[in-house]
Amino acid sequence: MVYPALLCLMLAISACGRISFEPVSGAEPATDAVVIDVEAADARVARTVPIAAPIGILGSANIFGAGLTIPPAPGGNGAGELPPSVELPVGTGRILLITEVTGTVSFGGTAHDADGDPVGSAFLEGPYEGLSAYWSSHNGALTLVFLDDSEPAAPPPENFESADLSYPNAAPLLRQLLVVGDGRTDSGVLQQIFVPDEATRVFFGISDSGSASDLPGSYGDNSGMPTLSGEFLVP
After folding, report:
1. How far apart (Å, rounded) are the C-alpha atoms in residues 73 and 170?
2. Which of 96, 100, 155, 193 has the lowest CB atom count within 10 Å?
3. DSSP for residue 195
């Protein structure tokens, strides 16, 4: 026997070829599957792959050292340390969600949270070798970069201009620095970061530069250690 409600559902699917489900307000998401609503594309069910453990990111974690064996400091005053990295789950169409960031960073003075110091105007550091520049109105915000298995080499990609940290989503290129801050919009919504299909790893760190140039450096007086948790959505 086909119940009327079931019959209506079958007719709807037959008529439109697919059916999309909208999340119910206030409902808790499933722990092993998330529905991603991508504009002009079918809804895709993804598995959630959490970052295995919270990542400690030193205030001296030099994002321009991503993929290198020695952190660079052409601007002088300290190179800091190599930034921590995470191996990406295999797949395409992946999305990174930064679910929590705690802790602060100090640049020899006042401590700031992951969103850095809002200086109010465009702030440029880099580019360096194969990595784009840090371009933001927030000085010292938490930053990431996606890489493949190769060492970054010139020329660098264009800069990702992220003056406003409250963007709902972003699709950075390989080797293009993305300023992420606490991973949320001003209203507290998780930002969706679309992972380049060629990427195999992601690095998290801090951008800093010499006082007389835009070249990486001046990590010698940095302190603090934000801690990041996150997860990947993999179709």
Report:
1. 28
2. 155
3. P
State mean pLDDT over 14-24. Answer: 35
Tokens in use for 127?
């580019």
**Average pLDDT, rounded, for the chain:** 81
pLDDT of residue 123: 62
| Structural domain count of the chain | 1
Task: Note whether 193 and 172 are within 8 A (CB).
Answer: yes
pTM of the model: 0.79
Least confident of 3-12, 54-63, 204-213: 3-12
Burial of 142 (0-12, 13-18, 19+ CB in 10 A): buried
Got the DSSP string for 207-224? --B-TTSSSB---TTEEE
Q: Which residues contact 42 (CB under 8 A, 6 or more apart)?
A: 18, 20
Structural domain of 213: 26-234
Assign residue 100 a region: left if phi > 0, alpha if psi is -120 to 50, beta otherwise?
beta
> At 144, which CATH number?
2.60.120.430
- For residue 161, give Cα distances in angstroms to 34, 124, 135, 138, 178: 29, 10, 6, 11, 8
pLDDT at position 173: 96
In a domain, 5, yes or no: no
End-to-end CA distance of the chain: 35
* Residue 19 within any structural domain of the chain: no
